[in-house]
Specification:
There is one protein chain. This protein is mainly beta and about 800 residues long. The chain is built from six helices and 43 strands. The strands form eight sheets. It has a 22-stranded antiparallel β-barrel. A five-stranded mixed sheet has the order 3-2-5-6-8. Strands 9-14-15-12-13 form a five-stranded mixed sheet. A hairpin with an 8-residue loop joins β24 and β25. The longest helix has 15 residues.
């Protein structure tokens, strides 16, 4: 039945996309402006318009206002590039319809470096020039993609990228679990998360866990980097780097208001305003979001305020200031369900008194100074404060409830009356400074671009636990009082060699981390302190080859590195645990291509050889559990990403498009001598077993249609194949729900958009057929989100 529905929809969309009659004479017009990062006009810039297949090419120069115009153009996809002394080359892709007039803006970045910044417009796929100089797999989720599918969470957005496995938790993805290329997604610990190049995670060196994640609505695009280009970032260079990009202030006053409502008490209201006054651009936005989660007794309310100021201080320097405040008040439990509870009512949650309170204030400043067009210094300053108070009666399905040994609490019968709770109270402070220098030069006639930088980073964790006497207590007996501090110093250097059609980029990163842990509950009252340190070299080299403008081959190999957590290298009594850093050798080989207008394809083969993968020592990993050296593991597979736009391919104002992101990981297994970390099974060997939470197949595919009058519709299918929930690869579920298989599942989503002038109305349905599936077993069974129906409107002014 589902197959017939899909085929019928495809037939209707393809019929609607039949080619329209074209005018005999060229009649399109493309105009625009070339501006600097503060939207000041760039006069005298050279603008080139070309269409590779036909050999068409025109060149023009911007006037005093930075404006240019090309008229009498055919209906087709054009490549428009702009350059000017003192700026990097930039380019855009524009699909011009019959008799259409398009106006575009090209932003030139400071510095005469060779890579192009390519902005996709009208949903055209990126050309190899987008990432031609990056020696590795890279993907960009642009604003149009985020808006056309009306993504509900960051999980939805990241599933559109091959190689990325995102596991649901409470249903709203407020604490996403992101894994890349078969790595365990728990708390996104194997991924480096950045916002405008600044840490998102509150303790990236001491506890790289994602209990806070900014809402996806804040961003204009998302960048995912998985290859050897990670050398320029750190400390985590294992799976990949995800950088969320916030929008810049607009040149003219502009704003928007978005209101969305839906079932499960969902509401999302967001307003933004932006303008530029003289040499200073301003942007501010506020969002209120609330709704029920995937289970009973789960409801979240959050507020997010974001501000950004971009000031041009002189012709050679700019200053960007960012500030964000986030608060969350959630009725949410940490525990999953037992097997019998799941089968009785998969969406139940008996812990209705569990609450979490989160509060984060972050600020950063970026100063860019161009000494010369070929020598640019960028300095980032950043600081954040994050508090996390989670009061809960259970931390996993093996606890029913936490304090059932207390005579006042006789099991689940007294859960809501006399049973107490645990308050996991956390305070984090993080700050640092990171200067980076980029220098373009020639050495023995070979063009080169060098980049080097350093960072000093500091973080403090205050961790307390108070056990309360009642289900709703907010104070109690202090049973944990820890302070954990980290100082980290890092530096990197990489040099891009431009050898004709070849680009070779070697690089080296150095990470030095100092750990300190103080237990303030020591018996003598004086406290116990332990210290440890590690230093690691992280080398890498990548290369790309451009046989033509439409194809780029790339390859690379680099050292994967992730530091251990402070709590795992230093015990509560001050002892040092011999827990190694995570180390691997990562390699990949791939090709990016645009074989024809409207067709994009990227294919990547990857391999990760772990010398040591750190894994949870028990199933609840992260619930007061330590980690352990997992030994050698192997991850190997294939990623495929493609998109077809018939509007560009067939030169039609109607556009049927299809996209696919597929990941195949046949190998994700323990290869060294390894015994299970499950209590009671430590003598059982698991060498050769598949790693937990590493599905063999991941598929995200979309079929959509765009009408020139502003109507758009799409259907999306998300397929995740079966997984194992433990290192024993248990095939029969255990009563506590923490061990056993996780069956594969498919979820369908649908979206309808209608744009009228400066307003857009939309309806979206997530999990269209209300499919019930298991998302996680780590702390007991967690179900995926049920069907969500949402409708809303966005008004621009």
């Amino acid at each position: 039945m589902f197959r017939r529905r899909t085929l019928l929809l495809a037939a209707i969309l393809l019929f609607a996309a039949r080619p329209c009659a074209l005018a005999d004479e060229p009649s399109g017009t493309l105009s625009g402006r070339v501006v600097d990062p503060l939207h000041a006009p760039v006069a005298g810039a050279t603008v080139t318009l070309r269409h590779t297949e036909s050999g068409f090419e025109r060149t023009g120069v911007t006037d005093g206002s930075g404006a240019f115009v090309f008229d009498a153009l055919d209906s087709r996809a054009y490549h428009v590039s702009a350059s000017s002394p003192g700026f990097s080359l930039a380019a855009i892709l524009v699909a011009l319809g019959r008799m259409e007039r398009r106006d575009v803006t090209i932003v030139l970045e400071i510095g005469t470096f060779t890579e192009e910044v390519v902005v996709m417009t009208r949903r055209l796929a990126a050309t190899p020039e987008t990432v031609r100089r990056i020696p590795g797999s890279v993907h960009v989720i642009d604003r149009r993609t985020l808006e056309e599918s009306r993504v509900f969470t960051v999980n939805e957005a990241l599933r559109k990228v091959p190689g990325v496995n995102v596991r649901d938790e409470e249903g709203s993805a407020l604490r996403p679990n992101i894994g890349i290329r078969g790595l365990n997604p728990t708390r996104s610990t194997k991924v480096l998360l950045l916002e405008d190049g600044v840490f998102v995670t509150y303790a990236p060196y001491g506890d790289n866990a994602t209990y806070y994640h900014p809402p996806i609505e804040r961003f204009s695009s998302v960048e995912i980097l998985k290859g050897s280009g990670q050398i320029a970032y750190g400390p985590v260079t294992v799976g990949g780097v995800i950088n969320y990009v916030t929008p810049d202030p607009t040149a003219e006053p502009a704003g928007s208001l978005t209101i969305v409502g839906g079932n499960r008490d969902y509401f999302n209201g967001r307003g933004s305003y932006s303008t530029t006054v003289r040499n200073v651009g301003f942007l501010v936005d506020y969002m209120r979001k609330q709704g029920d989660g995937a289970r009973d007794n789960i409801h979240s309310r959050l507020n997010d305020v974001n501000a950004k100021v971009v000031a041009r201080l002189t012709d050679r320097q700019t200053l960007t200031l960012r500030n964000n405040y986030y608060s969350e008040d959630s009725n949410v439990t940490y525990s999953g369900l037992r097997e019998d509870e799941y089968h009785a009512n998969a969406l139940q949650n008996p812990f209705k008194n569990d609450f979490a309170y989160f509060d984060r204030l972050g600020a950063s400043a970026s100063h860019v100074y161009a000494f010369t067009p070929r020598l640019v210094l960028t300095t980032n300053f950043y600081a954040s404060r994050f508090t996390r108070d989670w009061w809960r009666q259970s931390s996993n399905s093996g606890q029913r409830p936490n304090d059932d040994a207390d005579p006042k609490c006789r099991g689940m019968a007294n859960l809501d009356t006399t049973c107490g709770n645990e308050g996991r109270l956390r305070r984090y402070a993080t700050g640092g400074v990171e200067p980076r220098v980029r220098y373009g030069y020639r050495f023995f006639g070979v063009g080169s671009e060098a980049e080097f930088g350093a960072r000093a980073h500091f973080e403090v964790q205050e961790r307390r636990q108070r056990n309360g006497d009642t289900p709703t207590a907010r104070s109690g007996v202090l049973v944990e009082n820890n302070q954990r501090t980290n100082q980290a110093y890092s530096s990197f250097v990489q040099n891009r060699l431009l050898l004709g059609r070849w680009t070779v980029t070697p690089g080296l990163r150095v990470e030095h981390v100092e750990f300190r842990r103080s237990n303030r509950l020591a018996a003598d009252g004086a406290g116990v302190t332990g210290r440890a340190a590690l230093t690691q070299l992280v080398p890498g080299v990548g290369a790309s080859f451009d046989p033509s403008e439409r194809f780029t081959w790339f390859a690379g190999v680099h050292r994967g590195f992730a530091p251990p957590r402070t709590e795992d290298v230093i015990t509560n009594s001050g002892g040092v645990v011999e827990l190694d850093a995570e180390l691997s050798w990562n390699s990949e080989l791939g090709v990016r291509s645009l074989p024809a207008p409207g067709i994009r394809l990227e294919t990547t083969w990857f391999r990760m050889d772990y010398q040591n993968q750190v894994v949870p020592a028990n199933l609840a990993g992260g619930v007061g559990a330590t980690l352990t050296n997992g030994g050698k593991t192997l991850h190997q597979g294939l990623e495929v990403s493609t998109r077809l736009d018939t509007g560009a391919l067939r030169r039609s104002v109607h556009n049927v498009y299809a996209s696919l992101a597929y990941t195949f990981i046949p190998d994700a297994r323990f290869t060294g001598v390894r015994f299970s970390g499950i209590p009671g099974f430590q003598q059982v060997g698991v060498t050769g077993n598949r790693l937990p939470y590493a599905p063999q197949h991941l598929l995200n595919t979309t079929l959509g249609y765009e009408h020139p009058r502003g109507v758009g519709a799409l259907v999306e299918a998300v397929r995740v194949s079966s997984q194992f929930g433990d290192d024993l690869n248990t095939s029969v579920p255990t009563p506590d729900g923490q061990r056993g298989p996780i069956p594969g599942y498919t979820v369908w989503n649908g979206t309808l958009n209608y744009r009228v002038r400066r307003s857009t109305m939309f309806v979206t349905v997530k999990n269209l057929f209300d499919t019930l599936y298991i998302a996680d077993r780590a702390r007991g069974i967690l179900p995926g989100a049920p069907r969500l129906v949402q409708a809303g409107m966005r008004v621009e002014f």
